[in-house]
Write a structure and sequence with these properties.
With 238 residues, this protein is of the alpha+beta class. The protein contains eight helices and seven strands. Helices cover 57% and strands 14% of the residues. It has a five-stranded antiparallel beta sheet. A two-stranded antiparallel sheet has the order 6-7.
Length: 238
């Protein structure tokens, strides 16, 4: 591993990339970033979950899985309607109902209530238009990113906690990669650096996390899958 101002970098095969991501994740977890009640707070805890989801896994490939996750991470954020779990046609229907209520209030000479319903109807129409446009833009972004941008730029991840990128390298035999990860908080970055140094000194062999097929194990053995470790660690060490 190379360490510099720009972050922690490794060059190697896919196993090296996966291990690098796991080591940094373990270091962040030891620093308490995953805990919303820790000093780093809920915002960093959410950012940690996003990083933990995006980081390359042993069972994934760069072109398929990391490309898709990068496109998702880079896509337009959800609007009010999407965050409320409403589809555009649902908001349009609600807008129509509010407009009907507005006319009913006018017939009853309740102008104030009519105006309130009319404003709500306009808000729902605007929210529906916003949701529809975001969905359309997101589809375009995904297509453009996965089919064009990844041919020109590295696969990347960026939030308030981590900035990372992966590039395929032309150096060496076989499939080689360059994976650079930077911790955006200087104090936390120093802590992570210390943890990574401890891992280098104390751990001879790092067991890369692999996807477990617990359903198959239950069917074959007729037993419940083993419980997750208490600290939710992603890797095991000798």
């Amino acid at each position: 591993m190379e360490e510099s101002i720009s972050g922690f970098k490794v060059r190697g095969d896919w196993g090296d990339v996966v291990e690098h991501g796991e080591r940094i994740t373990r270091a962040l977890r030891k620093a308490g970033v995953h805990d919303p009640d820790h000093d780093y707070g809920a915002s960093f805890a959410r950012a940690f979950e996003e990083w933990d989801e995006w980081r390359p896994k042993a069972h994934e490939t760069l072109e398929r899985d990391v490309s898709e996750k990068t496109a998702d991470q880079a896509s337009v954020e959800e609007g009010k309607g999407e965050r409320a779990g409403k589809e555009p046609d649902e908001d349009i229907k609600t807008a129509g109902e509010k407009l009907s209520e507005s006319y009913e209030h006018l017939e009853k000479d309740d102008a104030d209530a009519a105006v309130d319903d009319w404003k709500e109807s306009i808000d729902y129409v605007a929210r529906a238009a916003d949701s529809a446009s975001r969905k359309a833009l997101r589809r375009v972004e995904d297509t453009v990113y996965q089919n064009v941008m990844t041919q020109l730029a590295p696969y990347y991840f960026d939030n308030e906690l981590i900035s990372a990128n992966i590039q395929q390298s032309t150096r060496g035999e076989g499939e080689q990669f360059i994976f650079e990860v930077n911790v955006n908080d200087d104090v936390l970055k120093e802590d992570v650096s210390g943890q990574l140094s401890e891992f280098e000194d104390a751990i001879d062999r790092w067991h890369v996390e692999v996807e477990k097929d617990t359903e198959a194990a239950e069917a074959i053995e007729g037993a419940e899958p083993p419980p997750e470790p208490a600290d939710n660690s992603k890797s095991t060490t000798n």
